[in-house]
Amino acid sequence: MNQRIEKIRAYLKEKDIEAFLIIKPENIRYLSGFTGTSAQLLITKNRNYLITDFRYIGQAKLQSLDYDVVKQKGKFIDEIKELCQHENIKQIAFEEEQMVFKMYETYYQALKPINFVPSSQFLKTIRSIKDEQEIMRLKKSAALADEAFSHIISYIKPGVSEKKIALELEFFLRNKGADAISFDFIVASGERGSLPHGVASEKIISTGELVTMDFGCIYKGYCSDITRTVCVGTLEAKQREVYNIVLEAQLAGVNCLRANMKCEDPDQVSREIIEKAGYGEYFGHNLGHSVGLEIHEEPRLAKGNEDLLQPGMVVTVEPGIYIPGFGGVRIEDMILIHENHIEILTKSCKDILVL
């Protein structure tokens, strides 16, 4: 945690700001290790404060050794105001994307004449490059997702509901050590496959349908995200055609990844393949996103994003084709960017499986 806190202090020094107020749970965990559900951080040039209520005092002292734990006696703002007065704060960095307007008004009025400096992007930037511990946890989370895919294959058959598959995936992941699932699982079969975010329903899977599964878990705070599409029964010619186009686009998007390339470039590589095949109108989302403590982080692999990929970033590559009345195909992997190569973290088979 010390290195992460030092990045905050370097930012404060560079911007001539006395303190950074942290309220977003994922940022609190990233900077302090605290996993409770009620806390705020105040990081100054010399001290680190974690404010929480009596339920979490013991937990905070165990998890956040670099912090002075302050017991919340009333509202958070009361403790923040007292600390700001004690530290003679004149400017305070804050997460403008996390703080709702009513909260901002309350804090702004209570802390006058302190100047509030929007700083959400700085936190996104430092979190985008993962350290060794984060990479280890992401790899474990991805490995659990791979295990779950291997396990679920035998459950996918005619007569089984999408929801039952989602529940079995969740049970398996939790039983194998996952803390939680990283999002509501997408299990979309048949025509429902045309819904990019078709959360598992009561629909019963039938012979001859494609089934797209997008799922992942959280391991020690870190998310995994994988998508595979399989066929139940006979694979028709158009299904094979669409699958092969998506697979080609996905492989091309993965293989072109490298450090210092623009985040829009892999999106263009994959998108051109789908467009040249005549299915461009059926691929309407970005190619991918970063993954970490949150399932969707920055940077995004998207048209117009000129940010550069950096070693230590973990991104997804997930092109898809979604055709109303037909269904859809999506294939997704997590990829770690190294200085001179890439590492695919999700290793499940991508050849079309006919079950």
Summarize the structure.
By secondary structure, the protein is an alpha+beta fold.
Please describe the topology of this protein.
Layout: H1 2-15, E1 19-22, H2 25-32, E2 40-44, E3 48-52, H3 57-63, E4 68-71, H4 76-86, E5 91-94, H5 101-111, E6 115-118, H6 120-128, H7 132-152, H8 162-175, E7 180-181, E8 186-189, E9 209-215, E10 217-219, E11 222-223, E12 226-232, H9 237-255, H10 264-276, E13 288-290, E14 297-301, E15 314-317, E16 320-323, E17 327-330, E18 333-337, E19 342-344
Parallel strand pairs: 1-5, 3-4, 5-6
Antiparallel strand pairs: 1-2, 2-3, 7-10, 8-9, 9-12, 10-11, 13-14, 15-18, 16-17, 18-19
Helix pairs in contact: 4-5, 7-8, 9-10
Question: How does this model look, in words?
Answer:
The chain is of the alpha+beta class and 355 residues long. The protein folds into 2 domains: 2-127, 3-Layer(aba) Sandwich (Creatine Amidinohydrolase, Chain A, domain 1), CATH 3.40.350; 129-344, Alpha-Beta Complex (Creatine Amidinohydrolase). It contains 10 helices and 19 strands. Strands 4-3-2-1-5-6 form a 6-stranded mixed beta sheet, with helices on both faces. Strand 2 (40-44) and strand 3 (48-52) form a beta hairpin. The relative contact order is 0.11.
